[in-house]
Structures are given as structure tokens and as C-alpha cells.
Amino acid sequence: MKLLCALLLLPFFFEGLLAQCPSPSNLLNDAGEKLCARMFEHSNIYFEQSCGGSFLDAKNGDDFPYMPLGWGNKISSLVVANRCTLKVWSKSAKGGNNRTFNAGVVYQLKDYSNGLFGDWNDSIQSYYCTCT
Ligand SMILES: *[C@@H]1O[C@H](CO)[C@@H](O)[C@H](O)[C@H]1NC(C)=O
Ligand SMILES: *[C@@H]1O[C@H](CO)[C@@H](O)[C@H](O)[C@H]1NC(C)=O
Ligand SMILES: [Ca+2]
């Protein structure tokens, strides 16, 4: 019986251990401030291992025609908080292609098309985040 319990609990344990993407309904920074979005350096085909590496936080109203230093063409996954919208562009100064992400988890930006042949992995060069 003990073994059975252990086996049943194992998957949940690992899921908890590996879960990385924060929930759109409770997107806060360490100081407890509400975020508009959090953007991550890495992604993973295993969704529970996505949202890895360093991250860049956007607050309501954050408007970056030019990415903060070191963040150009780097974002691979992201989470947009409930009632918020993240708009992104593929070129600096809000140029190139654009795309709007509503509240939710984007486990792999690679899965979102950017122009005819491209995708959004490591392709964000401007962003604007707003919440209602
Ligand atoms: C987004 O891209 C479309 C298509 O190229 C363009 O018409 C539109 O003006 C762009 N929107 C913004 C806010 O840059
Ligand atoms: C995203 O782009 C980076 C840099 O080109 C690459 O190392 C990484 O494998 C890409 N991720 C995916 C999911 O394709
Ligand atoms: Ca990346």
C-alpha cells in the first residue's frame, strides 16, 4: 500500500518540481508587485520545463521600443497576466512584424509564426505591455 501511494504521488511530485511557467492569474515579482508580463530567455518542448533561464519583467504601461540591454532577440517563452496584453515587434522602434499576446502562457514562441516563414523564438525587439 505504501509503495502504491508512492508510485501514484511520483508524477505529481515531478510535475511540481519541474513546473516553471508562472500562472497568468498570479503574476507577481519578488517584491509582490503585479506584473503585466514576464518574458524568459529559454523555452522547452516539455511545457513543464519551459520558462527557464533569466527573465525580463514588464509592468503595466511598460513601453520599450528598444529592448533593455542584453534582451534583444533573446526571449523564447513568456507569460501574460490576466487582463493584460503584450504587444511585440520583430524590429527595433516597433518595426517589422508585430504580434499581440493576450493573457496566458506561451510555452514556446517558436510555435508562433512571424511573417511567412519565421517564428517568434529569439525575435522580439520591441514590446509594449498594458493591463485594464
Ligand atoms: C502591425 O503589423 C501590421 C501588418 O504589417 C501593420 O499594418 C500594423 O500597423 C502594425 N501595428 C503596429 C501597432 O505596429
Ligand atoms: C531559439 O533560438 C535560439 C537561438 O537561435 C536557439 O538556440 C534555440 O534552440 C531556439 N529555440 C527553439 C525552441 O527553437
Ligand atoms: Ca532564447
CATH architecture name? Sandwich
**Total domain modules:** 1
Largest sheet report = 6 strands, antiparallel
* pLDDT < 50 runs, ≥5 residues: none
- What would the CATH topology be? Gamma-B Crystallin, domain 1
Q: What does the radius of gyration come to?
A: 16 Å
Q: Which structural class fits the helix and strand makeup?
A: mainly beta
The H-and-E topology, N to C, reads as HEEEEEEEE
Measured as a percent range, the helix fraction is 10-25%
**Kindly, what is the distance between the CA atoms of the first and last residues, rounded to a whole number of angstroms?**
51 Å
CATH class: Mainly Beta
Shape: globular
Q: Which ligands occur here?
A: 2-acetamido-2-deoxy-beta-D-glucopyranose, calcium ion
Number of helices: 1
Subcellular location: Zymogen granule lumen; Zymogen granule membrane
Protein name: Syncollin
Main location: other
Membrane topology: Peripheral membrane protein
Brief summary:
The protein has one helix at 2-18; strands at 37-42, 52-58, 63-64, 77-91, 95-106, 113-114, 118-119, 126-131. By secondary structure, it is mainly beta.
Verbal overview:
With 132 residues, this protein is mainly β. The protein has one domain: Crystallins (Gamma-B Crystallin, domain 1, Sandwich), CATH 2.60.20.10. The chain is built from one helix and eight strands. Strands 1, 2, 3, 4, 5 and 8 form a six-stranded antiparallel β-sheet that branches. A two-stranded antiparallel ribbon has the order 6-7. A hairpin with a 3-residue loop joins β4 and β5. The protein is globular, with a radius of gyration of 16 Å. The chain starts with a helix and ends with a strand. The mean pLDDT is 91. The structure holds 2-acetamido-2-deoxy-beta-D-glucopyranose (2 copies) and calcium ion.
